[in-house]
Amino acid sequence: MTAAFTALFLAALVLTTALRLWLARRHVRHIAAHRGAVPAPFRDAIALEAHQRAADYTTARMRLAMVEVVVGALFVLALTLGGLLQAMHAGWTALGMGGLMHGLAFIAGLVVLNSAIDLPFSLYRTFVIEERFGFNKMTLRLFLVDLVKGTLLGAAIGLPLLTAVLWLMERMGTHWWFYVWLVWLGFNLLGLAIYPTLIAPLFNKFTPLGDAVLKERIERLLARCGFRASGLFVMDGSKRSAHGNAYFTGFGQAKRIVFFDTLLEKLAPAEVEAVLAHELGHYKRRHVWKRIAVLALASLGLLWLLGSLIDAPWFYRGLGMQAQDTAAALVLFSLAVPLFVFPLSPLTSALSRRHEYEADAYAAEQTQAGDLVAALVKLYRDNAATLTPDPLYSAFYDSHPPAAARIAHLQAA
Fold it and tell me: In this model, does residue 253 exceed pLDDT 70?
């Protein structure tokens, strides 16, 4: 059984890596093939130079992503069959650690190692690619401050959560997976509640929307939609990037509407209203709760599967570990599962794109569809989003519909 599982794992690793690289190459070739002409629906609004800039920007990001795919696959291989996880596990044991402290140190050490491998890619993406195309506004000092803040926040939140999970796995018997699921679900809901007021302000400054005309327009929209928010805020997104966005976050009395300052600089008031109507469409169509329900069911199924594997010696041996405990099971499962579920990505992407169409339709009911079209065209242009994605790549990766299809739906509305 051990040899068979090892072979299955290797097959999944090779096939998933090959599929991701093949999709990326398709995407790059498709973009290059359409680089010479702006798609017909956008020729009046987007210049050829802007279209080619978007193509080059996407291509640069994809080439870096392909390197990340290869490095990530080699890292997983080194951790498992290469024996690195077993060596780390034995190292913490040699230092005299046991029980929960051993599990925490083992997983925390892996997180630090993984972050160290990701760091060069993040630096290159920010200070080379984003800089080259004029999007980066971040200094090295701010990057390092964000890194330290993120690390401390991750430790402050993650270590207590991980302690609870490992304790439940060890103490709650064969049905531990159900109790862990309840804790995980509660953690996600708590995160949604506290993110707007406690977490987001650690990284960005939020100021009340000061444009009285725009504020009045938005308040009329909120009244029409029956949406109550705790405030309208502008976020200093320009401190890090030239990309623009808007979103609402939280639930209950903690709901906030947030505009990037970069978005307000680029869009007319009617276009801002249309973008917000789209975001409100997600709320009115209950997309947030639907996604939470999907996540809850998926996590419950995966935790049950881990509960079925946790006492199977072939599961550990097949992935290169001699040690057998809850922390090792959690790590091995988190490394193996993405390889097996990646082929299902088009299903989740299709659900997300369906929600985007529904939110667009809601926006077209509450505002002028033409205003949302104008806003989207500006955002595609200013964010250098490709107008010609490869259809198959898009089916796997894109949470939003392709630009041309989305605009066509809105124009029909």
Answer: no
Tokens of residue 185, six digits: 């679900």
The predicted model scores a pTM of 0.90
CA 384/CA 132 separation, integer angstroms: 12
- Percentages helix, strand, coil for the chain (3-state, rounded to 5) are 75, 5, 20
Question: What count of other Cβ atoms lies within 10 Å of the Cβ of residue 4?
Answer: 10
Name 5's Cβ contacts closer than 8 Å, sequence gap at least 6: 314, 315, 318, 319
Residue 304 has pLDDT above 70, yes or no: yes
Q: Give the pLDDT confidence score for residue 252 in this predicted structure.
A: 64
Q: Which two tokens stand for residue 32?
A: 């290059």
Kindly list the domain boundaries of the chain, sorted by start residue: 2-158+308-343
Name the band, by pLDDT with cuts 50, 70 and 90, for residue 166.
Answer: very high
Please give the biggest Cα pair distance in the chain.
Answer: 69
Question: Residue 404 and residue 384: Cα distance in Å, rounded?
Answer: 15
**Residue of 62 and 248 predicted with greater confidence:** 62
Q: Cβ distance 81 to 319 under 8 Å?
A: yes
In 3D space, the residue among 35, 26, 34 whose CA is nearest the CA of residue 62 turns out to be 26
DSSP-based three-state secondary structure for 259: strand
- The structure tokens 């299903």 sit at 347
Instruction: Give the Cα separation of 178 and 161 in Å (integer).
Output: 15
Q: Could you tell me which residues are beta bridge partners of residue 398?
A: none
Task: Give the pair of three-digit tokens for residue 211.
Answer: 């444009």
72-80 long-range contacts, CB within 8 A, separation 24+: 73/13, 73/17, 75/114, 75/117, 76/13, 76/335, 76/339, 77/13, 79/110, 79/320, 79/335, 80/9, 80/319, 80/320, 80/321, 80/332, 80/335
3-class secondary structure, 191: helix
The catalytic residues are 279, 360
